[in-house]
Design a protein that fits this description.
Blueprint lengths: L1 H25 L10 E2 L13 E7 L6 H10 L3 E8 L6 H7 L3 E4 L5 H7 L8 E4 L4 E2 L5 H10 L5 E5 L6 H14 L14 E4 H4 L10 H11 L4 E5 L4 E2 L4 H21 L7 H11 L4 H6 L6 E6 L9 H9 L2 H9 L5 H10 L6 H10 L6 H10 L2 E10 H10 L4 E10 L2 E7 L18 H8 L9 E6 L5 H6 L2 E5 L4 H4 L4 E4 L2 H7 L11
Parallel strand pairs: 1-9, 2-3, 2-5, 3-4, 7-9, 11-12, 11-15, 12-13, 15-16, 16-17
Antiparallel strand pairs: 5-8, 6-10, 7-8, 13-14
């Protein structure tokens, strides 16, 4: 991480210099509209009838969620409050429900999915989004956000508030909007999550998965022809992002803006696409994952193919791509090493769009009980990860579907979101000494956690797998479980407990002694 921090700013300075020179010559001019910030409206300007659904995406917001729900319900414009819970492991859901909200479990981990999940169940035509960690809000903000919509003065409303933009807003989002979407450069808080819009408009917009969701919605609303306005809501208190999350946030925001600029015909620097694909893949790096441990001393690693999912991702992708026969021939052939076979399999998917990989991962069957098991383990202080010999593009989708903390897998390479057929081995899978026994193995991921110098150290590790490629990892863990094992070596190992379902493993938790192996 320290190494990246030294060259990161230089890369960005070079990039902006090159973009500025190129776009000054080539990019079409898009004059900004008149900058209009609407003042707070009189509460008597419109009928006080409740006409808005307030949607609050929330993940572990027990500290403030009840106050935010109560605040929303106190506004005369609010007809209902829906909290979309991202499988919180604290009391967020219970506190929100007790405060008067309707609580719905998100379809998958991520703010974008939660925001989208709130649209269809909303009973009102006007939707207002609030964050679950807000404080210091003055009365009447929901009414103020809705009035431009009711008056026909705007189709999409962003909140403008007193504090200055954060580092990612000021150093990434605003400069990029100024270059690619100057019509939106005046927006004070392009990354702010407090917005209002009509349900019909939001139903037509895509929602990004990560930190770029809010700027993505803003740009997409603009490109759809929606009239955008800001409403000054005064000042507010908002929890800041931890320092180690800011790099990933900046990368996600830049990726979304680049994508929208390219779709709109405003981007002509092709190497930028390669750059942000590399940044996206950085989320699978062990250094970044270790920064997210945040002092947790317990670790649960789940195999993906055959464990989290009954089937294998490559098999499902081959079915969707008409390559099942070719894949089966490779899987049945034992000539050559595993690395060569992986490369041959990857070439079957050359020229396939990244969206197809994601669609297949979203459609794969998940074993019953795995979401509940992950939630319970996180409640017990475990950091939960999906570790797979497959591709990170799929593993990351599946880990969010089961609400796990991270995914570790190999990278299949995309250029302009099209698969090149090349695979890059995740360095975390490579033994640091090049051990002949397990040079490339999932067990080396666990070794990286165990050797993490950050205090406090990891002292308890659990693993769930199903096949021989999980065996070394399972033997290294304090507790190992094989779900429907595919090999006698797992069934006959005295240190591995065989289970037939995650439900059976879940039943063991209240009585299971959570202790590490003796040193």
């Amino acid at each position: 991480m320290k190494k990246n921090a030294s060259w990161g700013p230089l890369v960005w300075r070079w990039l902006w210099a090159q973009l500025g020179k190129l776009l000054d010559k080539q990019a079409p001019q898009h004059p900004a509209p008149e900058h209009k910030v609407l003042p707070p409206a009189s509460p008597l300007a419109l009928d006080a009838k409740a006409y808005a659904t307030v949607i609050i995406p929330a993940l572990n917001e027990a500290k403030r969620i009840a106050d935010v729900v109560a605040y929303a319900l106190a506004d005369p414009a609010t007809a209902e409050v829906i909290v979309i819970d991202d499988s919180s492991i604290d009391a967020t859901a219970q506190l929100a429900r007790a405060a008067g909200a309707r609580v719905i479990l998100s379809s998958m981990l991520g703010k974008g999915a939660s925001m989208q999940d709130g649209i269809e169940p909303a009973r009102q035509d006007l939707l207002v989004y609030l964050d679950g960690d807000l404080a210091g809000l003055r009365p009447g903000i929901i009414t103020d956000l809705c009035i431009p919509l009711l008056r026909g003065a705007a189709d999409f409303v962003k909140a403008r508030f007193g504090r200055g933009g954060g580092r990612v807003t000021e150093l990434t989002a605003k400069p990029m909007l100024k270059i690619f979407f100057p019509e939106l450069a005046h927006i004070s808080q392009p990354l702010g999550g407090i917005i209002a819009a009509r349900k019909k408009l939001l139903q037509t917009l895509p929602f990004e998965d990560g930190y770029g969701v809010d700027v993505g919605i803003l740009i997409d609303a603009h490109l759809s022809g929606a009239r955008i306005a800001e409403v000054d809501i005064g000042s507010l208190e908002h929890d800041s992002q931890p320092l180690h999350d800011l790099t990933v946030m900046a990368n996600e925001v830049s990726r979304v803006i680049f994508n929208r600029a390219r779709s709109a015909g405003r981007l002509h620097v092709e190497q930028v696409a390669t750059m942000y694909e590399a940044q996206r893949q950085a989320a699978s790096g062990i250094d970044y994952v270790l920064t997210r441990r945040k002092g947790r001393q317990r670790l649960l690693l789940l195999d993906m193919d055959g464990t989290v999912t009954p089937s294998r991702f490559a098999v499902e992708l081959a079915k969707a791509n008409g390559q099942s026969t070719a894949l089966m021939q490779l899987l049945d052939t034992h000539d050559g090493d595993a690395s060569t076979r992986s490369e041959n399999i990857a070439r079957l998917f050359q020229y396939l769009h990244k969206k197809k990989f994601e669609q297949v991962a979203r459609a794969m069957e998940i074993r019953p009980g795995v979401i509940e098991f992950v939630n319970q383990m996180r409640r017990r202080g475990f950091m939960v990860g999906v570790v797979s010999d497959s591709y990170f593009v799929a593993a990351d989708v599946l880990r969010r579907r089961i609400f796990a903390d991270f995914a570790m897998a190999h990278s299949i390479v995309f250029e302009n979101e099209v698969c090149t057929g090349q695979v890059r081995i995740n360095p975390a899978f490579i033994h640091p000494t090049g051990s002949a026994g397990n040079p490339i193995c999932k067990s080396n991921v666990l070794r990286r956690f165990l050797s993490d110098p950050s205090e406090p150290a990891v002292h308890l590790t659990w693993v769930v797998g199903d096949n021989t490629n999980d065996l070394a990892l399972m033997r290294l863990a304090d507790a190992a479980f094989a779900i429907e094992p595919k090999s006698p070596s797992l069934m006959n190992d005295p240190d591995i407990t065989v289970i037939d379902s995650f439900g059976a493993l879940l039943e063991r938790l209240p009585n299971h002694i959570l202790v590490a192996k003796a040193a």
